[in-house]
Each structure stands twice: as structure tokens, then as C-alpha cells.
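Lab meeting minutes (informal)
Scribe: AK
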Amino acid sequence: MPRKQFSRIPRHIGIIPDGNRRWAKAHDLDKKAGYDYGISPGFQLYETMLKYGVEEATFYGFTQDNTKRPKAQTEAFVKACVDAVEILAHRDANLLVIGNTNSSVFPKELLKYANKRVHFGRGLINLNFLVNYDWHWDLKQALNNTSMYDHIASADISRIDLIIRWGGRRRLSGFLPIQSVYSDFYVIDEYWPDFKEEHFVEALKWYQTTDITLGG
């Protein structure tokens, strides 16, 4: 098995699939077209993570801030999220969609998956999908509770070991601030639609060199 070549496999990996619009522009396409080309890489990565024994992964779909983009782009990435979930429903995964459903932007097609885990097939991996997500919204309901983590909207998502971001940007963009507090962060310069399994393998190689201090 491929996992045997590594002494440490992150239990939970965060995925920031950035660069869709820049990829489209580089290929002389309308920016909105990039989101549709980002669906297939997600399932290539899904198969790769199964192969390496990853137990949980969280994909950044879109944020509330993203919806401030032009209407055509917003409609395109919302549709891409819906299409991705419809494909996943025929795979083997346990899906949790996390996001603010009290918004006209949240796709009604995903309401049946929102804020609860739904099991598909053999449930080989826990997949979390951030849709219309905002870190303010996530933390808001916890502010008046002494046990903050137990009351955030994303409390069912575990702490993240490794975050991988495509597209070359060096920022978290509000990605699960509580769960990512001790995450290692690996950046890939290539745009998300150009995903290759080698990107993931290189991230795992780098992860072997990190130490687990937890602040110590």
C-alpha cells in the first residue's frame, strides 16, 4: 500500500482548492468556467486520500465573502458545489456540509446534507464541505458558552493535522480557525484545476519533516 512509504499520515487534511479563476484566464476562458474544471480534481484527490489511508478531509467550497463576486461567478461556484455533492452521493464517504443555511445563497439542493453527517456507500472517509461558510458565523453561537469548542457551528469537524492550499497564496482565508490552530500548512503553486497526485505526495513528504509540538 502507498501509505507504507510514510511513517506519518495526517488523520485529517484540510483542502483549499484555489486558483480556479486564474486557471481559466490562463486558458483564455471566462473566469466562471474555472469552477467547473475544479470538480474532477476533487475526486482525483478523494481517490488518492483513500489510497493513502486519510480518515477525514475538509474541502473549502465557498465563503460568504466569495458571494460578493460577480453574479455569474457566484452562480458558477454554487453550481459546482452542488454538482460535486451529487457525484459524491454515488461514492463511499460520510458527508458533512457546514455553512450558513439562513441565506438565499446557500444552495437549496444541499439543505438535506447541511449541518449533519450523511452516509454514502461504504463510508470509507469523512468528508466535510464548507459551503457559504464564514468564520464569524461559525464562532458566533459559541461566544456565550464556557466550552467554546463544543458550541461552534463546526464542532463536528475534528482538529486538522495538515492544510494544503493550491494556487500559491499563503493565507488561510478564514478556513476553520479553531480546528486549524495547530495545523501544518503546505502551499502548492499550481492552480487547483491542474491537480496531480504528485502534489499530494509531495505534501506528505514535507509533512514527514514537521514536528508535533502542540505549543511545547
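Next up, CB showed the second protein from the same session:
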Amino acid sequence: MHELLARWQRGWSRSRGWTNYTETDHVIAVQIGEPDRQVEYFTTDQYAEGAARMTLAAPHPPGSARLAVITPDPVRVAEALHPLKIVRTLWLMSTPLADHPQHPIPPEYELHQTTSAGLIHAELRHHGPRNPGRVAATGRIAIDGTDAVADMIRTEPAHRRRGLAQALMSTLTTQAQLQGATTGLLLASPEGHLLYTSLHWTPQHQLVFATT
């Protein structure tokens, strides 16, 4: 199994509470158990075809078994995964946390943060005259050894383009360092890729996601 993928998966599983996972024949299977997301498999492009057969054979309703393959060649992997349906391609990114830039929280927002069992959850709430206390941005970061996996970073549409995501990431990565983490990992969409690149995160690999 690809080391960086396995490290990201452990933190992602901790963030989501999906800690029932095993590795067989170079494929990690995460048991999720939700109606539309029963199991998710992770592997490298070297084992993509075998993992695709495993995904197709999973005894779950169509669309609830998913597969993610780390690869430098998403087009070739997409062909190898047929007849699975390609859902999207994301970037696996990393950064030394000590190099993460610091962005202040805008004055009309306030931070609310909770920490438990290696998981840091943060919210930025608006305290302006309209809709005071409304959550404007949320995110979390899971600590696994010296890795910190950022997850579920979201800004509400009405509050975008105000620097909230940058401020939230600054807060989360600072708190992760206080818990001994030194390396940040995350998955980014094409849109998120632009944000995280501006925050000194480096694209490492692409993950192709497919489903039954």
C-alpha cells in the first residue's frame, strides 16, 4: 500500500469515525455502513483492476461500494476500472505544518473550537447585526502520530471570499502542531487545490474515485 495514501486514510477514518478498516491484497477496505455508502476501498494503480473486481463483488446496493485509486495517470486508471462509474478525481496534498502561513480571523467572526481524542473541530461564527451566531465556516483536523489530516473544510456561500477558509486552516494547523503533528495531509477538489496551493500545500498524487 502507498505510504502517503495509508497515512491519509488513517486520519480521514479518525475524522469521520469510520475506524473499522482492514487491508487485504494491497487494498484497504473501510467499513462505513451508511445506506448510500457501505464500504470504501483504497489502493494503488498497480492493483486497480483487482480492487475493481473486489468493489463490484461487494454485497451492497448499487452505488454504495466505492473505490479510490492513487495514481499519476488518472485517464489510464479510469479505463482500467471499467465498468465502475468514475465519480471524480481529487488531489492528495501535503505540507510541513511549520511552514503554514497564518491568516487572522476577520473581526466580524469568532472562533468556537472543541478537541477530543485527537480530533480538533473548529467553527467560525458570524456576530454581525444580521443573523448573529450563525456558523459561517467549519472544519476539522485529525491527529495520527505526527500527521494531521484536514477534513470537511467548508464555508457557507454567503460568507465566501472573506478569507474564512484561510483563517480556519491557520487555526487548525496551529492547534495540530500543539498536539505534536508536523505534517499536514488532505484531499482537495480542483477548486480547493487553488486555495491550498496558496497556503503552501503541495500536490503529491491524484486519487480517482469510482462507484458501482
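CB comment: The radius of gyration is 18 Å.
No objections, moving on.
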